[in-house]
Amino acid sequence: MAERIQETDDVVTFVVERIDERAVKPSLPGQYVTIKMLMKDGVHQPRQYSLTRADDGRHRHFAVKRVHGQGTPDGEMSNLLHNDVKVGDEVVLSAPFGDVVLEYTDRPVVMASAGIGVTPMAGMLSHLVKSGSQRQVMLLHADDSPGSFPLRRQVTEDLALLSDGSMHTWFLNQDQDSGSSSFTGFMDVAAVELPLDAEYYLCGPLPFLQSVRSSLISKGVPAKDIQYEVFGPDLWQADFQ
Q1: I want to staple 47 with a disulfide (CB 3.0 to 4.6 A). Which of 77, 160, 221, 232 is the partner?
Q2: 146 & 183 share domain
Q3: 241 in a domain, yes or no?
Q4: Which domain does 45 fall in, by range?
Q5: Which one, of 140, 185, 143, 200, lies nearest residue 165 by Cα?
């Protein structure tokens, strides 16, 4: 492990540096890796985490939210990574995987996320900046408060580096750091002017995805232009038109 970056009280970005010169598969924008760790009970457990930055040839970045059990046990892997993994430790990552990948076109792109669902969006934004993209890019994000918004500084800086990048946020609890393009409550895509003929990428909890996808379709967005990733079991199946 090359570096640990504290993003919020419950989110840490881990930076992994390769330690040999074997050929590695480059990541695509929006993909994830699997990390496999030895748990305290002696069992090796795999978990998937989205890559939050474009590859630089030596490092890979992924963010982990500490899972606090609410009537259930705490997240075993997330708490192990937060508590026990230190700079200098060796970990094993898989090659990048995932089918929700940003398409390289000239069309506008709208990314909608909630909570830790911003991580694949951060990876997509990083790839867009690295490629010098001229696309119109809009990030929509919902969170509890500005202080709980993971990777907020990174995505804000990357959007500023794009020729036409913008962000709108929805916070349940506003404060002085909310920003001028912030709304109170749950995400409502009807509150912003969406670009015409855009591609949409969604990531977050199931109720969030259902709500945002339904709202977009009601506004005339073709279902085939909406890609989504559920953080958790995929309990619903989109009908592509």
Answers
A1: 77
A2: yes
A3: no
A4: 3-93
A5: 140
